[in-house]
Structures are given as C-alpha cells and as structure tokens.
Amino acid sequence: MKISYNWIKEYLDLNVKPADLAEKIERTSVEVDDVVKPSDGLKKIVVGHVLSIEAHPDSDHLHICQVDVGEDAPLQIVCGAPNIAEGQMVIVALPGSRIANNVKIKKSKMRGVPSAGMICSLQEIGFSEAVVPKEYADGIYVLPADAKPGDDVYDYLGMNDSLIDLDVTPNRGDMLSLYGTLHDLSAIYDLPVKFDQPAVKEAGEPIADQLSIHVDESLAPQYKMRLVKQVKLAPSPMWLQIRLWNAGYRPINNVVDITNYIMLKYGQPLHAFDYDKFAGEDVYVRNAKAGEKLTTLDEGEHDLDVNDIVIADDKAPIALAGVMGGLDTAIADGTTTVAIEAAVFEHDHIRKAAQRHNLHTDASQRFERGVNRTGLQDALDAAAQMMDELAGGTVQTGTVVAADNVPAPAVIDITMSRVNAVLGTDLDQAKVTHILETLGCDVTADGEKLTVTVPVRRNDIHIPADLLEEIARIYGYDELPATLPTGRMTMGELTTSQKLMRATRHSLEGLGLNQAISYALTTEDKAKMFLMQPSEVTKLAWPMSVDHAVLRMNVITGLLDDIAYNSARKVKDVALYEQGRVFYREDGTDRPSEQEHIAGAITGTLLPTAWDAPAQPVDFYQVKGIVAAYLKDMAVNGDVTYVANTDMPEMHPGRTADILVHGHRIGFMGQIHPTIAKKFKIGATYVFELNLQAIIDMPKQENQYDVISRYPAITRDVAMLVDNDVTNDQIVELIEKRGGAFLQSVKLFDVYDGVKVPKGKKSLAYTLTFQDKHETLVDDVVTQAFEKVEKRLQDDLGAEIR
Amino acid sequence: MSLKDKLNELHERGLAEIKKSGDLKDVNQVRVSLLGKKGPITEVLRGMRDLDAEERPKVGAFANEIRDDLTAALAKRREELENAVLNAKLANEAIDVTLPGTPVAKGEPHVIQQIIDQIEDLFLGMGYQVLSGPEVEEDKYNFEMMNLPKNHPARDMQDTFYITKEILMRTQTSPMQARTLETHDFSKGPLKMISPGVVYRRDTDDPTHSHQFHQVEGLVIDKHITMADLKGTLQVLAHELFGDKFDVRLRPSYFPFTEPSVEADITCFNCGGKGCKVCKNTGWIEVLGAGMVHPNVLKMAGVDADVYGGFAFGVGPDRFAMLKYGVDDIRNFYLNDVRFLNQFTKKG
C-alpha cells in the first residue's frame, strides 16, 4: 500500500522528513519497499497555455502550437496528440528539461518545423499507465483552467508529495489504511491523531421503505447499506484525483472514486451499486447456487461455486461478495441512485473465492486480513456525505443494518514481571502503560498486573505475547540489551554419527574429491538408476518441472548431472563426492524412508595434467584406491572385500565390484556403462556409492599402539604364472595363510599379461616381508616359510614359479 | 745447511706445492711427496740421530711443527678443492624454480557446507546440540504444529511440494522445533539446538530462487530466555560469519510460529553501512527471521508455555554465501561447476 506523506501530515503534527518517517515505520511497524517523490528526476516541466494551433503542412496528425509558458514570447511546439486544442492548459517540457526515465528534451525540428519543447502526457512525466484517467490515456493531459502558465506543474499534479510504499505483513491488516497507519504513527511518535469524521446530512425518504436486506450472518457478520439519490456522475475534483493516483488508483468518476478513497482512508472496502438496476427492492447475502454465473466489473465471466458468497437481488447474483461487483449493477453513465455497501465477510470464504476466480483485489486482500469491525458506519457515513458534497446526491434517511455483529474487544492480562522477563528489559509500569495507551488500549492496573483492553481494529492482538510485541517494537528493538542465554550448562557436542559424517567429508576431500551438493529431486528415469535395494519411486503431486519431479534413490545420477554440466562447459577433469539422502519407499506406504549415502564420481584425470606428469586417465583402480583409503579412515571392523558384479544394468559388466564389509554389501563401484555415459553425454566415468548409514552403524576399530620391531626385516620376491581366472585375492589369501608367524606383509609389485606369457595365463609378482618382533630372524627360518608358500602356490593354484 | 734451515726450506717449498695443486689427485701426490715415508721430512728426521742430545728435541719439535702445518695446509687445500667440485656440481644442478609445482589431489568442502560447519561450530561452542530432521515431512510438523493450521493464508499450496495430502517436502527446518519440543526432557536441562538441512519450495529456479536450498534452524527453550538473549545470540552469529564490525538490528515482522517476530538486518557488506545500491541505501541487509517462540507452538508440543519459553531463528546459508562472497546466482550452488567450487578454498 502506497501512503502519502502529505496526507499523513494533515492528521498528525509530524516534524520529520519523508525518508526518516519511512525508516521509522520500517523499524517499528511494517517493511517499507521504497519512498518515491514523483517529481524527483524531472526538470523544467511547466504549465503551458495553448494560444493557437494550426495543422502541420507535411503531416496529417501533427499540429503546430503557440504555447504561452509564462515567458515574454510564446513557444512554438509541434504536438502529435489527438486531443490538443486551443485554450487548454497543458504540461510543457521546456527545451533543456528532463522527463520520465531521464530523457532530455531539446529544441528540434519535426518534419521541418522548429519545435521548442514538448507537450506531455502524464505517462511521459512518469505516471503509471494504470493510474492515468481513461480520457487522457491516449493523449496529452489537460490541467485545470486556473493553472498559471510558467508554473512548475508538480504541485498541480501532487508530484511533490512523497509516497511511502508499505509491504504490510499478513497480520497487520490495520495498516492497509490511512486510519490504521495514523494510529500506529501516533503510538510511535507519541502524538495525537486529529481525524475528521463528517456528519451526514440526511434528506431523503427513510431507506427502510426502499430496501430490505437478508443476510446469512455466518457469511457476513456485518452488512450495511446507505442509499444516495440524484447523484450526478462527473470527474472528481483535482485533490481527490491526486490522492487516488498517488495511491496507485485510476480516477474514474466521483462516485467510484469516493468508494476507493474511503477504502484508502478507513480501510473499509465499499461497493457502490446502481440501485435502479436491482431486480426488486430486496438484496440477499448468501452462498451462490450451483450453475449461477456472474460477469464482474472487469468483464470477467465466472461460473460461481456453491462456496462463493454472493450479493444477489431477486433474480441473480449482482456481486461476488468481498471480491468484485457485478457489471450489470455497476455505476455507469446514467446512474442516479447509488446503494453503498459496507460489510464484513468471512475471511476464509473470501480468500478461497479470490483464489478460485483468480481475482485478488484490494477489497479481497483487506477482507482476508480483517477490517476494522468498529469502523463500518463511519466509513459508510463519510462516503454518503462525500456523494452529497461532490456528486450533488441526496442521502436517504437511515442505514439498513442487516447484520452488525461487532466482536468484543480482546481483554488481556499481563504482568510487569512477565514483560521484563521475556524482553530482558527493566521497563517500569508507567512506561508500559503509556505505550499501550498510545496504541489505543485501555489499561487498568492491579499491582503489577495490567488488564489491557485492545481496540477492536487491532485484530492481531489476542494473547500476552502479542502485547509483548507491541511493547517491544514501540519501545524500540534498538533499546533492547544484547545478552546470551544463561541458566543450566549444556554440552555442545556432535553425535557419533555426525562426527563420522564430518570425517567422511574430510577423508574424501583429502583424497582429492570436491564436495558437490546436487538436486535431490530428479526425473523418474534417473531416480531408478544405480539402485542398491528395491524401492518404489516417490513422486511429487504437483512438480514444477519434469526434471525435478521424483525423489532420488541414488546419489550417483546427481553427480553425473554435475559432470555433464562441467563437460558441456569444457571442464573435462572432474572429481566429486556428495553426502546426502536417498529416499526408499515400500509399496503401500506414502512416506519414504531416508537413508544417508555417500557417493563419488571421477572422470578425465584425477590429478591435473602437468608439465612433469603425463596425463593419467581415471580407471577402476583409482576409484578403488579412494574407496579403500576412505574405508580405512572409517576403521570399520571387519574385512573389506571387493567382489565382481556383472549384473548392474547401469554399470560396466566387467569393471564393477560390490563392496563388502565382513561379507555385508554396503555399496558398489566401477565404471558406468558406456550407454549410460552416452545418455548423460559424458566420457568414461568411474563411480562409487556407499550406504553411509551402514558404515555409521558398523562397529569400529580403535586406534591401538603396536610395537615397531627393532630387528631387521627380510624380504623375498616371488613371481609366478597362473591361469587368468586366478585372482589376486586368492593368491594373497593363500600366502597370508601359509606364510608362517613372521610374515608381516604381502605386496603385489607386478602384473603382466602381455605377449611374453602364454595365452590364458598371467604373471604376478609379490614381495613377502618377514620380521620378528623379538629377535633377528635367521635366514633358514625365512627360507623354510617361503618354500612352503611356493609349494602351496603350485599345488593349490597351479602356479608356475618363475 | 743446518737441519733447521733444511726444514724451513722444505716448509716453504711444501706450502708452494700445496698452493699449486689443482685437484685432489695433485693434493694427494703432494702429500705423499712431502710427508710420505720416503719424503724429505722423514729423511730430515732420520738425520736427527747425528745431532747432539741437547739439540735433538728442539729440532724434533720444530720438525713436528712443520709437518703439522703442512698437514693442515693439505687438509685446507683438499677442502677448498672439494668445495669447488661440489659447487660446480650444484651449479650444474640448478633448475627453474618458477616452474609450477607438481599437482596434488585435493578436494574442497562445498561453500554451503563451509558456512553450515561454521555455524555448527559456533553453536556447539555455546552448548547447543546439532540435530537433523527428515526432509520428507508430515504436514502436521511442517505446518500445523508451527501454528499454521490447514486454512492459514501463509501456507499457500503453491509454495509446497506435496507428495500426498499429508506428506510433503519440508519447506523449512522449523518442523524440527516441534519434533524436538515434543521429545525434550526439560528436567534434564534447557533445550538448545540448531538444525541444519535441505528444504524445498515450489519455485521456478532463477538467479534468486531455487526449489532446493538450505536452512539452519535455531531454538532455545528454558525458564528464563529473553528477547535480549535472542538479540545477543544473533549478534554473535553475525560477528562469527561476517566479522566483528558487523552490527545487527531487529525489525518487526510476522511469522506464525513466533511472537514477537523480527527480521534481523546486518550492516551492508558493500558499503559498511553508508548506504549503496546493494542495500537500497539503507546501510542494512536483511539476513534472517527470528522471534520468541509462539505459546501455541509450545502448547501443541506439550510444553507448559507459562513456565517455559525462548527464541527461535532461521538462517539461510545460501543467502549468507551469496552475500558474503557476492555470488549473483543461487543456481551455482547446485550445478557444481568445478571452477565455481574451487573458488572457496581459504582455510581457517
């Protein structure tokens, strides 16, 4: 809501600049979007009197005008506006002036005729298209006849006012009016409000003889109408038009303008009906009936819902209550009798109707948030009186009050000790009482207990906490001390699982992977890939896009998306890991379970290529090295083994392994299948994904000191030819089993399956290290153990020792 | 010629030869020729037996002096020559120290993670627990128990990814308030927790909106927690994340689950509070929402609102990272361009 600084000052004796006022509002009541003075940025724009016009010789629409701008000689200005006429007072941008959008106007020639400036429309000096009166929408604006040539136009058009745009939070419906804003400012600045409530001059017949209203009070707890006869539609006076356009409303005619003006001033939406267009003298407030239709003022046609509240006459709905009036009973040329409605509609119905019909109006917004339930009659009276004064209408005697259920004011008890205990302040009772009273509350004290009666217009205040907010903000948040919570000590410590997750991230970063955070919402196709356990997909009911419609059941595809994004930008070396949740759902349940996973993906080269290190493309053993090092860091208790898996559809059948700890599968790794790589438009990529929750839950080894032997170690190398299907694991296992008590380690140092070995065979070579912790090993002991190993290799694995 | 003169002459000649020697081989030859068993000094010493018993020790001492001096001169010369050889070798080994170092594999935590870790560490130090909650949440916890009943205007269906009518992607980390309030045993001490995590909103992704982002919820409930404590806590948070010269101010706001509700602004980074384009000339930037926990939230979770109360706040690490590092597009955080990820490597 845009509120006028000048308007505020009419009622409140403020002595602050607009920017300071805005700052104060923002710090104390609601957010301020901006403060705008419409004349800012404009220069040398004055009133001109069109002395004469003649047609341009070389144009069928341009006119050559002689314009008195208060100087010795008139200016010649060429003007293309269709509504230019002799005698008009117009807006002239002089040579050297600046108009809207910082456009500079210079002397020029138009089709050969010199033109010293420009005659302007309102839009050209910065008015929004939406507020320009319809008759001037396509041409220049004509100022009142008493404007003085040569004067700046700004004051004539209200452009020296400052407009403060309030972003009102949903709880502060009261701030959607001048009235409410004034009362808040009155508390903030501790100043009285001088609000003028006019007396209505009633002259016509009793309204009761002309109108009966039948209201369903559950839909409209309050409903009133006044009737004004013999109105004469005309443009509103300038001051009223200025108030409206500065608030963002287009002036239409005096009757409609009055209803908008009263809404802005009082916060009470009013609707003006053309009484003569009612079918009968009865008006009903009821639910719409199935099949009923209504064409609203904006010419929109609506199929009404049975939950909509309508105003109806004897025949049909004439308004969508609280949202928008109907076209058939609208104020239009020829209207002479106006029925003014002031009502309160049930907010939930209004919110849903506005949504249903996609009609979010200023009226519906105010009804949704709640209007001043004690202010209906004042708003109605002020509107009727203005129709008398500005439209020559005769206000009929009386008001039809069909329903008037005004809620009782909230009465809240609060103690001073509570106020200070919650705010952390040391306020005295007089101060708190004064703050509450400036807000319009009635306060009675009983010792330190305050009984506070809240004005009905503040429908956001119900409980002591609400009063605390009022006290705190008016007292000023800057005045609050800044302290830290005291009380019993608490431990701040990460849980075991949180520590492990941090350790996981640190480990993988140490191993060269960057942490990625990808989208957890993906496509159904991707969600189903790389599944580690069977699961139903979980879909969003109304996704925004197909790309983010299903909850992921793997982390890898997000990383592949990331690699694709990098790859498309020519970043070919990518090493990422991600720690996050996957969502598994069992058939027949709505809610998936969430499982922490850790996944990685590498493509290109792991180390950046450099002048002294040839590029080494990523391969299976690099990703295995990462996984093995990570699992070592996590110190899971139990052997980690890797078993070839040829069955994962998204993985290379010959380059994929399941990762097992103590025989339990906790994940997999390997190269993604070339068809998947192609689908993602990426190169050869190696991945792993592990069930992090399983790792968290597994028993861990503790770090333990082991004596480092002071005695020398003896090494023996063994090279052998074995069949291709004999694995490293088999050989190492055998050596470890048969190597005797002093075997410390077995290390593979060569693998060869090239031309120098027979087909179907491969050559493997190991270094065996023997060491005793208590004495120097004797060579014979080692030889004995080593020969035993060699014999077993030959006997059990058919190895040919070389 | 007396033996002494002979020795003197030998001494001079020896020193001259040592000086002349060009390499280690020469030095060795000089050593052998001067001090060897068949060398002149040995010879002179042999001639000593012809001397008087009186003279003998004097000449002997003198000969030893000469021999020691020559031995020292030889050692010195050898060292000189060895150093020259070594220096020549080292000179040969010179490299271009400006060539780049060999790359090492090194990964970085994600910038959002860095901010979350920083917040976690700060609050752990102040005795808070870190809790994480489900990302797929019940309507009950996400909204109802946060004082947002079914028809509340602030929970427009538009903003939430629903899975079923009752199950949704959490739109905030606030449901962790309700979940922890429900289970916390206040007889064991106050509740002080933060809860970081991923949240989801039904938004179209653009430079300032993302359908997925992060929040850190904070909650402190005890018998005597004040709004001043909230202000002090937020000040500590701002100082930790941005530096001591940043100030915090509170403004009234509205959240259904807090009363009073405030927005917290911090001093604008760009201008340090003078007013600039970034802060719309206010000198302040809005960074988080907070407030005193609404009694309804406490009551719904079974906590006695007459005895217990406290504050809650919600921080957006994405927004913090954008402000702190000047990131102009929130989507950068979720696309994981390596060139982006590697911009945030400063440690400590």
TrEMBL record, chain B:
Positions of the Aminoacyl-transfer RNA synthetases class-II family profile domain: 111-323
Keywords tagged on the record: Aminoacyl-tRNA synthetase, ATP-binding, Cytoplasm, Ligase, Magnesium, Metal-binding, Nucleotide-binding, Protein biosynthesis
Principal EC category: ligase
Principal subcellular localization: cytoplasm
InterPro entries: aa-tRNA-synth_II, aa-tRNA-synth_II/BPL/LPL, Phe-tRNA-synth_IIc_asu, Phe-tRNA_ligase_II_N, Phe_tRNA_ligase_alpha1_bac, Phenylalanyl-tRNA_Synthase, tRNA-bd_arm
Binding site for Mg(2+): E259
Xref: Gene3D superfamilies: Bira Bifunctional Protein, Domain 2 (3.30.930.10)
Enzyme Commission number, as recorded: 6.1.1.20
Note accompanying the cofactor annotation: Binds 2 magnesium ions per tetramer.
GO MF term (any one): phenylalanine-tRNA ligase activity
HAMAP family associated with the record: Phe_tRNA_synth_alpha1
Oligomer status and interactors: Tetramer of two alpha and two beta subunits.
Family the entry assigns: Belongs to the class-II aminoacyl-tRNA synthetase family. Phe-tRNA synthetase alpha subunit type 1 subfamily.
Protein name: Phenylalanine--tRNA ligase alpha subunit
